[in-house]
Specification:
Blueprint: E1 10-12, H1 20-27, E2 33-34, H2 51-59, E3 67-71, H3 81-88, E4 93-98, H4 101-114, H5 122-128, E5 130-134, E6 137-141, H6 145-159, E7 163-167, H7 168-173, H8 175-185, H9 213-219, H10 222-227, H11 232-246, H12 258-263, H13 265-274, E8 280-282
Parallel strand pairs: 1-3, 1-4, 2-3, 4-7
Antiparallel strand pairs: 5-6, 7-8
Helix pairs in contact: 6-13
């Protein structure tokens, strides 16, 4: 698999609702990064049957010196993906955001309801999980501590210190610092600084939605059809404009109910234990200290 070029060079594997759209929107600004026009290719979890040629075509178009990325939050949800990705490219680096289960469940539930999906009640959603139809496949959402711990352990076991884990709370406080840490971890030339990144709360639960978009994403095929008629630079530009338009000016904080907190108590304790030593960790648990480099001109 993926022996055409052993792409991608890096993957942002989720979790869903942990800023992956923000990273997609910003990393495609970096001159040393190439991303496909379409975030969420879902190749390794939903579309392996399309074959490596299809995947390589989605990632094609990089320039010499660029690192190729795949940003796919759905990868976190599939326990098979870490092994498959590690076997495909032993040099790939992975970034994984982890969000506290209470706010994660609340955000997911609000997001799916905003898209008009028939999600169960918040309490049932948290206790039993939910199988979401997306892009012609199914993404399973489960929130118990054993399941979440097993998923994160799979990434740690497969990638060790080629895995960067960040606490979503740190991202929510200072998006630029986490973006710069990712830049350092991926061995990219320094580029992002104040005034040189889009500090947007992109794709938030209270944002706008586009009529029909949720349906196209669920049934699959819509994005691929669009890509046949528009050149990739135009698609990248349109995607960036859509991200900004869909971003709310502010986001309301939804207070969790006592019942939700009780349901997710063990999951919340597991989450707190992960970041006991700091908000940025390598896969083996050592705190990550970004390399300080002098900015340089990137052409």
């Amino acid at each position: 698999m993926l022996n055409l070029r052993q792409v991608p060079d890096f993957v942002v594997a989720g979790m869903p609702r942990c800023g992956t759209t923000f990273f997609y929107h910003n990393l495609q600004r970096h001159p040393a990064v190439h991303l496909p026009w379409r975030k969420e290719l879902n190749y390794l979890n939903l579309h392996r049957d399309r074959g490596e040629l299809w995947y390589a075509e989605q990632l094609a178009g990089w320039q010499p010196g660029q690192r190729v990325g795949d940003i796919e939050p759905g990868y976190f949800l599939d326990p098979e993906v870490p092994t498959l990705l590690g076997q495909a490219n032993e040099n790939v680096k992975v970034v994984l955001g982890v969000r506290d289960p209470v706010s994660w469940v609340t955000s997911l539930h609000a997001h799916f309801r905003r898209l008009g999906e028939a999600v169960p009640s918040l309490e049932e959603f948290a206790a039993r999980g939910w199988d979401r139809k997306q892009d012609g496949g199914t993404l399973p959402y489960r929130f118990d501590a054993d399941h979440l711990s097993s998923l994160v352990r799979g990434w740690r076991d497969s990638f060790g210190d080629d895995l960067l884990i960040f606490d979503y709370r740190a991202f929510a406080r200072d998006r630029l610092s986490v973006l710069q840490a990712m830049e350092s971890f991926l061995d990219l030339p320094p580029y992002f600084e104040e005034g040189n990144f889009a500090d947007l709360c992109i794709n938030a639960s209270q944002g706008r939605t586009l009529p029909g978009m949720a349906h196209l994403l669920r049934v699959g095929g819509g994005p691929d059809q669009v890509s046949r008629f528009l050149p990739r630079p135009m698609l990248n530009r349109l995607r960036g404009l859509a991200d900004q338009w869909l971003s709310p000016a502010s986001t309301a904080v939804v207070e969790p109910t006592p019942e939700l907190i009780a349901t997710l108590a063990s999951s919340q304790a597991w989450y707190e234990s992960i970041f006991a030593d700091g908000p940025l960790l390598l896969g083996h648990g050592r705190p990550y200290e970004p390399t300080v480099m002098e900015p340089e001109l990137v052409s």
